[in-house]
Structures are given as structure tokens and as C-alpha cells.
UniProtKB/TrEMBL annotation:
This is Methylamine utilization protein MauD. Residues 49-183 form the Thioredoxin domain. Signal peptide: none annotated. It holds the Pfam family Redoxin. It comes from Gluconobacter thailandicus NBRC 3257.
């Protein structure tokens, strides 16, 4: 009888410890999800390059490890916008089609910056319609800009100067960021249809 009680006590202790570990892991994951999906508004930028500063020329990497230049004077004379995303960010997936459509409307090059390991980003691209939008990784860029919330947009004019940087989850927020770039908005019927489909 005593042996049975000892065994049951040990098993109960092990189960309690296991449950405590599971609860801790779940609490941590809930915290991460809360951070990713919290209401997004104007957020203070505490570090990294600021509006008015130029992003130096750096070399990022596409998912196939080929080089992709970023920053500095844009050789085509076009402005571009960097969108920082991750595979586990539901707000990023919701916002991406809007940003893609508005980038086309503003005649701006959109570049996605992945904040996770390459396998996770590859899995995301298999489930997402990226069209011809490049997805790159760059630790140097993450260090230069110090992005804290996702999805964050960084608008760069054709000289590589930052005209705006902020988190954005709504059409109005994206338009406000892209509106800081010196690019006229197309008013063609085709563009209006593209924007309508992205809503």
C-alpha cells in the first residue's frame, strides 16, 4: 500500500511539473502573439535610422541566397518601400495585399524584409501571393533600422533617404507613409480596380 502511495505521489509530482512547464510555454507564446496582434497606431521610434537620414548601400540576400542591393541612390530613379514581416505575423498577412496594391498605384518598388529563418520564410512564400515582390533577409538592415513592431514600413526616396517609418495595419496608415514619397498617384481605371480588389 505504501509503495502504491509513493508511486502515485511521484507520478503526480511529475505530472504537476510537466503541466507547469506547458503553462509557462503557452503563456510565453500568448505574450508573443499579443505583441504581434496588438492594436497598431503611431508608435515612438526609439532607435535605428530616423526620418531624414539616408540608408547606406548594403547587400541583402534573396531566399535563394543571391545578392540584392538596398539603400543608397536608386539606379532607376524610383522610390521604394521596405515592409518588415515574419511568417508568424497574422497582421502582416492581412496588410500585405493592401501594401502591394498601393505600391503599384504610387509607382513604388515594394521590398519585403523577412525577420525569421529562411525555411520559415520559404514556407510562407508557398502560401502567399507575392507576385514579383522580392523577399530578402539582412541582419545588417535589421541592426541599422532597429525594427520593434510588425508590420513596419520604411519609405525611401530615390536617394535612399527615409521619408517615413512606422507600423501600419490599415489602408490609411499605409497611404500616409507612401504619401511622404515624391511620387504621383496614378488615377487610371486599372489602378482603381487593383486597389478595390486589395480591400
Amino acid at each position: 500500500m505504501m509503495l502504491f502511495l509513493m508511486i502515485s505521489t511521484v507520478l503526480l509530482t511529475c505530472l504537476t511539473l510537466g503541466l507547469a512547464v506547458i503553462v509557462f510555454a503557452l503563456a510565453r507564446q500568448i505574450g508573443v502573439l499579443h505583441e504581434r496582434t496588438a492594436p497598431i497606431g503611431q508608435q515612438p521610434v526609439l532607435a535605428g535610422l530616423q526620418v531624414g537620414q539616408a540608408l547606406p548601400r548594403i547587400t541583402a540576400r534573396l531566399l535563394d541566397d543571391s545578392p540584392f542591393p538596398l539603400g543608397g541612390m536608386h539606379t532607376t530613379g524610383r522610390s521604394n518601400v521596405l515592409m518588415f514581416i515574419s511568417a508568424d505575423c497574422p497582421v502582416c498577412k492581412k496588410t500585405l495585399p493592401v501594401v502591394q496594391a498601393l505600391a503599384v498605384a504610387h509607382d513604388i518598388d515594394l521590398i519585403l524584409i523577412g525577420e525569421e529563418d529562411v525555411p520559415a520564410l520559404r514556407a510562407m512564400t508557398a502560401r502567399t501571393h507575392l507576385e514579383h515582390t522580392p523577399l530578402v533577409t539582412s541582419q545588417e538592415l535589421l541592426l541599422l533600422l532597429q525594427i520593434g513592431r510588425l508590420p513596419t514600413l520604411v519609405a525611401l526616396d530615390n536617394r535612399g533617404v527615409i521619408t517615413a517609418r512606422d507600423v501600419a495595419s490599415t489602408r490609411a496608415q499605409v497611404e500616409a507613409i507612401l504619401g511622404t514619397l515624391p511620387v504621383p498617384v496614378s488615377s487610371s481605371f486599372e489602378t482603381k480596380e487593383l486597389l478595390h480588389d486589395a480591400v
